[in-house]
Amino acid sequence: xxxxxxxxxxxxxxxxxxxxxxxxxxxxxxxxxxxxxxxxxxxxxxxxxxxxxxxxxxxxxxxxxxxxxxxxxxxxxxxxxxxxxxxxxxxxxxxxxxxxxxxxxxxxxxxxxxxxxxxxxxxxxxxxxxxxxxxxxxxxxxxxxxxxxxxxxxxxxxxxxxxxxxxxxxxxxxxxxxxxxxxxxxxxxxxxxxxxxxxxxxxxxxxxxxxxxxxxxxxxxxxxxxxxxxxxxxxxxx
Length: 238
Prior knowledge:
The chain is of the alpha/beta class. The chain has six helices and twelve strands.
């Protein structure tokens, strides 16, 4: 059985690089891999493409990457919790692509599952549909057809959203064994479980690392075959 435990400096040196796309799950700052983010900030890696629900708050988590000018582009559902992000977006220092919270989760899930995309009614008849393909379901023929936005609507419409994947995922766990089996705690589970499936290289920072076999198989939420590396994190501050 493979021992995947390493150190934060080592794993960042070997698998992180300027311009990479990073999956950073978490809700505001719950379930965010803060130790890995701090480790990244100790390097000169920059021009990051971030996929996350939000940009946390000033001085915490992703907010530190914002403050340090390490982010080139972010795909997220909102930035309002962090006024510094708002300022940098307005000033053109960070490019942002907004995506509804449920849609971003499903797009990442599709990326992890190898699905070509998802159909969602969320965002139809709003700016969210601009530049995307629209489909309409014909209840008579029971078929989907591609339509243009300005054509008369005769059935329910959906946006075709493309999958999202990352080069690296920073995952926060409550416990992980040395083989990479993971348990999340309460709401810190949020996006971590889904985001862990959709990166080429998955790094888990765990509050507690245990021996292989110590975790009850029934409580494992992310199996070790998905995880590439495990590092020691710190307890999450509620």
